[in-house]
Structure formats: C-alpha cells, structure tokens
Amino acid sequence: VLARLLDPADFGLMALVMVVLAFVQSYADLGLSQALIARGSVAPRRFAAFYWLNVISGCGLFTAVCVFSPVLAHLLGNPALAPLLPWAGASLLILPLGQGFQTLLQKELHFKPIAMAEMAGSVAGVSVAIATAAAGAGVYALIWGQLANAMVRTVPIAVRGWQDHAPLSRFSWRDLHGDLRFGVFQMGERTLALINTRIDQLLVGALLGVEALGYYHLAWQMTLQPLARLNPVVMRVAFPLFARIQGDRRRLQ
C-alpha cells in the first residue's frame, strides 16, 4: 500500500535515515543489555544504573543527532536528510524507557509480553504510516509510522516494568564496572554486523541516488528482510538460554 502512496525517493531517504539510526541506536546501551542477561543476577542497584544510563544515553544521542544532522546529511550527499534525522531520532528518547525492562523479561525468558508489544507496535506503525501517507505527508509518513511503532511497543513494557521493577533513584556507575568490558565487545560485534548488512544501502544511495535506493530498499524488504528479521528472534531466545546454562558443561553439550 505504501509503495503506491509514496515515491521511490521517499523510501530511499528513509533507508538512509534508518542506516544512521541503526548505528546510533547500537551504541545507546553501550552493549550492557547483553551483559545483564549473561552475567549473574541483576541486583536493584545494578539495574538502576543500567536503566538510567540508557535514558541518559538516549537523550545525549538524540541531542547529537539534532546538532550534527546537517553534517551527516552532507556526508551522505543528501541535504534533504537534515530535517528528517531529528524527527526520526526522537525514537532515541522513547525506546530507552522500556529497554531495561525488556532486558529483564528476556533474561527471565518471558517473551510473550515482548511479542505482544512488538505486534501492537507494528500494527500501529503501519496504520499511522498509511494514514499519513494518504494525507500527503510524503517521507514523513514513514517517520511518523516508526515513532508510532516505538511508542506503542514501549509503553506497555515500561508500564509493567515500573509496576514490577521500578528502578532505584539512587545508584552508582560503579555497579556496572564489571559489565563495561563485556559491553565493549558487544558494541564491536554490532558495528561489524551493521557494516556487513548496511554498507550496500550506503553505496547505492551515494552512487546511484535516493530514487535508485528506494527501489533497491523495496526489493530488499521483499526478499531478504524475512531472514533479517528471523535471525534476531533466534538470537533473542538463544542468548538468555545459553546464559542460563553457561556453567553447566553437560547441558551445553
């Protein structure tokens, strides 16, 4: 439906926006989400430090995106990106509000609330995108859809989290000291994975333009995205499972 309502160039611009946000969001938690899942029990002070670090990091990264959006647009060779990046970057303020609680749910293998929230977010995102595209919003329809998705899938996780695991207001960054080294390796792995999966879009956008990138992105979504979506789901389940039995060599075998 969206392909009929929007121009290919709109999808190309959004693809570039999502590449930038993918890199920025990969550093939002400093790789500590995986550390909380893998490394022992989560004490209240440790979780509080992790949660508030996520929120502060999201605010800082959003500010950086707003300040440097003209520079990023210039580097990517498309001035039209400059006003789009701050709007899309608003998700950096929304997602951290639920990220910590989602990490706890993953650690405890409670995947149903996450799946329900993500399903509702996807429906809301597509609905908002179609409605605003039909109203003539252009590429901004895709951004409003992304923000609606982020909001709808974050709110139920955050509300439940504050009821069950409200983070302490007093904490120390030292509570995360043992997790930081683990997080550095996670950020390195994420960076390499993003380069591997997104470099093609950057090259198409830079060499052939956003209209060609729009066609390429639509084709990519129809052919490769199902596999790209499956792998994170498998990893989301497998990682906490292996973390639980990491000290049991017999079960690992």
In short:
By secondary structure, this protein is mainly α.
Fraction in helix: over 70%
Q: Order of helices and strands, N to C?
A: HHHHHHHHHHHHH
Based on helices, strands and strand pairing, what is the structural class? Answer: mainly alpha
- First and last CA, distance: 48 Å
User: What global shape is seen?
Assistant: globular
Radius of gyration, CA atoms, in whole angstroms: 19 Å
Outline the biggest β-sheet: none
Mean pLDDT: 87
According to DSSP, the number of beta strands is 0
Low-pLDDT stretches are: none
The proportion of residues in beta strands is under 5%
The count of helical stretches stands at 13
User: How many domains in all?
Assistant: 1
Report on this model:
The chain has helices at residues 2-5, 8-26, 32-38, 44-75, 81-88, 91-94, 96-107, 112-134, 139-165, 177-208, 210-223, 225-244, 249-252. By secondary structure, the protein is mainly α. It has one domain (2-252). Helix 3 packs parallel to helix 7, helix 3 crosses helix 10 (177-208) and helix 10 packs across helix 11 (210-223). The longest helix has 32 residues, at 44-75. The protein starts with a helix and ends with a helix. The model has no long low-confidence stretch (mean pLDDT 87).
